Amino acid sequence: MRPLSNKSKHYGLIALKVLILGATFWFIFNRLSSLDRTAWETFSTALSGQNLTYILLFILVAGCNWLLEITKWRTIVSPIRKINFRESARHCLSALSASLWTPNRIGEYGVKALYFHKEERKKVMVLNLFSNLSQMFATLLFGIPGLLYFVFRYQIDIPAWKPLLILTIVLLLLVFGYAFRKKQLLIRGLTIQKLLKFITSISLEVRSRVVLLSLFRYIVFASLFYLLLVFFGIEIGLSQSIPLITAMYLIASVLPSFFFTEVAIKGGVALWLFSMAGYNEIPVLCTVTAMWLLNFVFPAVLGSFYVGQFKLAST
Questions:
Q1: Smallest Cα–Cα separation from 210: which of 132, 298, 310, 308?
Q2: Residue 236, Cβ density class (10 Å: 0-12 exposed, 13-18 middle, ≥19 buried)
Q3: What is the sign, positive or negative, of the torsion defined by CA atoms of 238, 243, 244, 249?
Q4: Could you give the maximum distance between any two Cα atoms of the chain, in Å?
Q5: CA angle at residue 159 from 157 to 160, to 5 degrees?
Q6: pLDDT tens digits, residue range 221-244?
Q7: Highest mean pLDDT among 208-217, 243-252, 277-286
């Protein structure tokens, strides 16, 4: 097969940029226009009051969330290439913009890899996987106790076969993973055995820092969720909110999401949990919307500028 000419690559990259930017802004517009009218009224009323200090606080906390994510990415790729904070921000924000409308934001892997040389891209994708798994570890660490407390506190009736089914699936995945550890995965030349070997080759210091940053990031965006709940009028103590918030993020993280369903899924989970605890649904919906705007929409809009400036790393 003949390799693509530079001219073909150039036009292909332009088409990809147009596709990404078009899909990103359509996605944002679609989600904002589909929000409940009552939620919008509550949302606009809260923002129109004398609440500038609180709004600046929320923006600051959301900024800390992304500061930690950018620092985490800079840390995890350091074994391959030393990048500065600005480069790391460009990688993270453009990847968010490009992956916002892909299933479970899987497009993030490809976009970040494109900033590196061809021979580095497989390793970068594995490093990105480790970074996301570290964030998932934080979600499980906080979420499992929160979910268990929620189930027992509010006496949620769960048939015994459901936990057993989940445990069976996890065990089967571990068994199959071990049995097929030498089999090639979706990426050519990549096996589970090679993946684990590469991850363990990363220094303990780097891995520990990434996990620690993931834990800090979880605490930051969970704290932001609580502050927004109080801002929108829910009278709830910190000790009461922690199990609900951690359980919400755990359930939402294991549910598959595609395109415009992510916000609906998180909103649905939050509404179910907080309504079971006896709280009003509208402030919860406003909180979920505000979290989405602060942590995804605004960074994605900023990332779209990086997408427009993107150039392939030389191969």
A1: 132
A2: middle
A3: positive
A4: 65
A5: 125
A6: 999 999 999 988 888 888 899 999
A7: 208-217
